[in-house]
Amino acid sequence: MALHKDFPDDPHAILDPSIRWFPADEALRETTMDKLMPPLVPALRKKVKEFRDGGYVGATNTSKSLLNWWFNEPHLIDQPDGSAAEFQYFFAQREALETIVYLVDVVGVKDKFDLMRFDGSGLVSAGMFDETWRRFVVKMATGTGKTKVLSMALAWSFYHKLYEAESSLARNFLVIAPNIIVLDRIRKDFDGLRIFFHDPVIPDNGFDGQNWRDDFQLTLHVQDDVRVTRRTGNIFLTNIHRVYAGDESIPSPNDEDTTGGRVAGGMVPAVLC
Question: Which of 23, 46, 116, 144 is most exposed, with the fewest beta carbons within 10 Å of its own?
Answer without folding.
Answer: 23
